[in-house]
Structure prediction request, 411 residues.
Amino acid sequence: MQQPSHLRITAIGADGDGIARRPDGTTAFIPFTLPGEQVDGSTVIDPSPERIEPACPHFGTCGGCSLQHWAEAPYLAWKAGLLQDALDRAGYPDAVLAPIVASPPGTRRRMDLAVKRQNGVLTLGFHQRRGPIVDLDVCPVLDPVLAGLIPRLRQMLRRLTALKREGSAIVNLLTSGPDILLRLDGTPSANDRILLADFANENGAPRIAIAEGSHATEPAAQRIPPVTMMSGVAVTAPPGAFLQASPLAEAAIVACVLAALPAKRTSKTRVAELYAGCGTLSFALEPHIRVDAFEGDGPALSALQAAANTAGLAGRIVAAKRDLTRQPLMAKELAAYPVVVLDPPFDGAAVQIAQIAVAKVPRVIYVSCNPAALARDARTLHGAGYKLLSATPIDQFLWSARLESVVVFGK
Prediction:
């Protein structure tokens, strides 16, 4: 429905859209606007002095970024405000935040591209907001190695017969190079496999894995081990593995987590690390405290365990498979730990946080990528008498409405 004319944007909402009040009192959400601007429909007729030229020619159509048009200082202040608002809703209205950590352009090390073949034309890129794929040729957010790979991926995928109509290409920039996972809707032929092996050799990809429909992932080509370094430990990541979006953000998260560890601990003190993934925090924690790492994803857990064993850390890091939504650590299990570190998925950790609150774990270090889920889970901790010890916003998802943060709670 077309927006009424001449609305004034009063704020930016949680999804990055401008908020305005219609004459009838209802709320309008208008993308790509800024506070103070006057709009006629979706056209800005009185631009804000904070409006800048977007860095990407795809801005406004590609759904990857929503805030490239905002000057850095007010943009970062708004990002920090997402954490401030979340803690306010949780019952911590006077929270004092550490300065926000900003990720610069050109540092994102993961891309998840959609692919579509239609009428002989192949499109590769990110989706519009609730719309079709935008065919990318540049992306200022991505590490240049990944951005430069896009046109070469497009050329290769055009020749791949196993891509019938649609699929995806997930690429993680590991220490050993761009690790590629292709999700396809057809069965790769012998010629497809030769094509993939040649592409890996020509583009320095340690591995190209494929997954057809719901079938298990399998390696189609592997030159060298697909290794990424995590706090000095070599981890052979599974295809499409979850990694923190940028090395700078990962370093900031690690620094915040380590700074929040209890000062009083012995050589036998253990931390319960929940949603451990491949070990991003496990290997950072290990030199400072023994780690019991819990993770529900089998391939990620196997990667963590193998890396720990190879590095001679068995006993210092103990990994266990656990679906923490269906089978959370219960209060009796948590009672043995003076500190819990958790880095849950986007939806947060409602079931697990409830048990942490019952157990009265003395220190809770919560790494969040979703302020709304953080607000809900922090409200549970507030109700159990936890104090807020520190909160650090980290702009890991540049020019988007998403925010990473590390928040520390204590008894």
The mean pLDDT is 95. The two ends are 50 Å apart (CA to CA).
